[in-house]
């Protein structure tokens, strides 16, 4: 199993480079008598043989006093040494932050998320073994975000998808610190899976395995992005921490060969049916390489103008049945009763994979979102201009960026 990016470590580690705010208010020394005189004692005890005095407790507050641009995801941590905490208050404009005190009563950690662009005041009290009290006060300010981003994720939570479906994350604002983003996004799988992230733009990043997913794999994505600085004043927003689980269904990979005019459907590596097809003509070849099923329409109006081919330049507008979309450049596997005579014989389409009505209905019903349709024997490869999932056309050695 590969987890490309993990969660942030605990708050104290993240502040390791900062000075802690340590405030100790020492109690007055207790005088002792002996040998007919009066002397002053330090924390270690009375030199004249009087009763030993307990050390004064100290209180430490993190973030450091007067720290600014603190991530709102960082917890407030108050610790006591030489005593126990008897009171902690963290507040801003009358709103208090809740927290948890450990069983030893020496460490308090906030549990309520902080807000952006807010100044917080901290007050704490600790008591040592003899009842002497130490108080501490501090204050800090959280970071200001020019934009708080939200990560949209595909596949959706709870869905089952085919072995070719990558994980896609879409940010609603540009992310310039790409490294920070992927360091806080973790993929876990029930089956050991080698995979990696690749950025397609400043707002879109995909994770895919080196090879197709193993059927039956349970996949989880955790985006631990709240409060993470993503560059140019952009931070992960309040809803940026997400947990998405989905399942990889049975393996279905179809090989469509423009040279033999046949498409063979494999399930879990075994051929289940070979279908005669007519693919893109020499003028309009079907793009080569692994496509991914991204949509299914029982009836679909196809208009060549959506991908730049005018009607008076040989384009078309027609309704087709059993349309299984395999790219966003207008390529479908669909019913084409007008080309049944050419199916299995020649390629006459505008780029789609034509099937007979019966075969198209079977393929439509048999396919799931995320299945692979791998096109062989055509001169033009699938690429960036062909839509949002051309991941498998990128060699693994070029995948990471």
Could you please describe the fold and organization of this structure?
The chain is mainly beta. It folds into three domains: 11-31 and 40-141, Immunoglobulin-like; 147-248, Immunoglobulin-like (Sandwich); 252-398, L,D-transpeptidase catalytic domain-like (Beta Barrel). The protein is built from three helices and 30 strands. It has helices spanning 11-14, 178-183, 357-366, and strands at residues 21-23, 31-34, 37-40, 58-62, 77-81, 84-92, 95-96, 99-101, 107-110, 119-127, 133-141, 147-149, 151-154, 160-161, 167-171, 185-189, 195-201, 204-209, 218-224, 234-236, 241-248, 252-257, 262-267, 270-276, 289-292, 295-303, 317-325, 332-335, 353-355, 372-376. The protein starts with 10 loop residues before the first helix and ends in a 25-residue tail after the last strand. Residues 1-50 have low confidence and may be disordered.
Features:
five-stranded mixed sheet; disordered N terminus; 30 strands; Immunoglobulin-like; elongated; 3 helices; 5% helix; five-stranded antiparallel sheet
